[in-house]
Amino acid sequence: MTRGKRAVDQPARTADGTETDAMTGGSNLRGLGDLPMMPPLVGANWGSFADEIFSRDYQGPRRLSDKSIGVYRNSDLRSLMTISAVDSVPAPVFSHPISETIGANAEGWESFLTNNIFTMLPPLRAPVRQILARQLTPGQIVKYQALADRVAREILAETMRPSVMDFQDAYAGRVTARFWRCVIGLNEREEEALRNLPEQILLGFGNEVTPDEARTADQAAGEYMEVLSSAILRECRHGRNQMLSEMAAEFAEIDLHDKPKDLGHMLASNILDGSHTVKVAISNAVYCLLESPDAKEELDADPTLIRNAVRESLRLYSPAASVRYCSADVLHGDIRLPEGTLVLMLWPVGNRDPEVFADPSRFDLHRPLRQAAPFGGGAHVCPGRNITAMLTEAVLRMWIDDRLRITLDGPVEWDPVPSMSRLKQLPVTIKPYQ
Ligand code: HEM
Questions:
Q1: Ligand 1 geometric centre to CA of 380 (Å)
Q2: pTM for this one?
Q3: Ligand 1 centroid to 381 CA: how many Å?
Q4: How far is the C-alpha of 17 from the C-alpha of 22, rounded, in Å?
């Protein structure tokens, strides 16, 4: 595909991206009002959205509203992701619309948001993030490899039936919830809360949240936080879970007045990111291979390519966009982003940028992926990226090692949620090797 002339070239900014007086003295800066509007995102299928937007002449950031922009070009994403002033979105910026919509304090929603690293600002964010990130490095998670393999098979045995099933909810969602159940020490009811409530909580992140959706999101968040945080604190008290004991010790060391209430609330909120999105990653990876029988054949012949398959599926169908917030004025190229600007980081689109990825809609097991960023980047890069890859690889390995016959059994449709790249459902039949 050919690309039009770039309207934005190399960014000129200070080391951390904040604007200086010398910069504002320049006369040719553009403000948010000068940017062209973003085409509608609701209902967008990221594949066709990327094809369409990358065929236009103008390729820079686009305006979403008076206070927000959307960024989709790979080089813009990679430049903005490292700027320290393009930071987390403070909880009140997320929360207020929900409270306003339901006309009351949204306590459950606020408990979920204020305990989430996504909403934490310096100096709190780094030490809290570190508690989670330290447990999820490649070296640490090796110990969960056998568990991931076992859970992939256990859930298959529980769900396999001769008829069509929705692979996403009936299988992938169960795998992620069961995995976290074993890691944390949850009981059956708590596993169910982890599996079922995130879907309702995510309604609160929709574009135009209705009062019913806001109430549902608030109630689900309240129940989720209560069930999961109590479970985590119970397991901490037992002292039998090394990961939780290490986390609790680090949590106790943080001496900042706005730190989360306790480790239970902090971990509960952040594990939600890890449960729902991983379900989508697993389902998207399986869908990629169902769509690309040649690649599946290659994988059958050489299972060492499983890692490539997972990374390429995360590029092609990146599960998540994310939002950042300008905590100070930022200069990006010739665009001035005032403090308070919301920046929608469209990773699923940037990972299909034809300037970086040749034939971007093709699933290619041998593609160089250095510039793919399905997990964001910079200081905010997703701490759950390694565990996501491990769980997704476990499912593909089971498919190949056990020579299962998984076939697509019905049409698929992408969910019209602007921040996710997920199928409404993935109807498949799974048969054992005969
Ligand atoms: C398919 C799976 C996942 C995807 C696609 C994903 C994607 C992302 C993205 C795009 C960001 C924003 C990065 C940025 O702004 O530069 C992020 C941040 C984050 N993710 Fe994930 N994530 C996944 C799984 C997980 C898991 C398994 C966990 C936890 C166990 C997790 C926890 C977090 C947290 C806490 C942040 C905030 C980091 C910060 O602001 O410092 N995610 N993730």
A1: 8
A2: 0.92
A3: 7
A4: 13
Number of neighbouring beta carbons within 10 Å of residue 180: 24
Q: Choose among 176, 213, 166: nearest CA to 196.
A: 176
Any alpha helices (H) in 62-124, and if so which ranges? 74-80, 91-102, 107-114
* Strand blocks (E) in 298-348: 322-326, 330-332, 335-337, 342-345
Pairing of strands 68-71, 342-345: parallel
| CA-CA-CA-CA dihedral for 313, 316, 322, 327, to nearest 10 | 110
Residue 427 and residue 166: Cα distance in Å, rounded? 5
**Does residue 380 line the site of ligand 1, with CB under 6 A?**
yes
The encoded tokens of residue 1 equal: 């595909």
Q: Residue 273 Cα, ligand 1 centroid: separation in angstroms?
A: 6
Residues 6+ apart with CB under 8 A from 282: 172, 175, 176, 391, 392, 395
For residues 254 and 127, the answer to whether their CB atoms sit within 8 Å is yes
- Rounded CA separation 138/132 (Å): 13
Give yes or no for residue 377 CB within 6 A of ligand 1: yes
- How is residue 418 written in tokens? 């602007």
Mind listing the pLDDT tens digit for each residue in 125-168?
999 999 999 999 999 999 999 999 999 999 999 998 889 999 99
Bridge pairing between strands 335-337 and 62-65:
unpaired
Cβ-Cβ contacts under 8 Å for 272 (sequence gap 6 or more) = 112, 116, 194, 198, 201, 224
Nearest residue to 159 via CA among 180, 175, 177, 183: 175
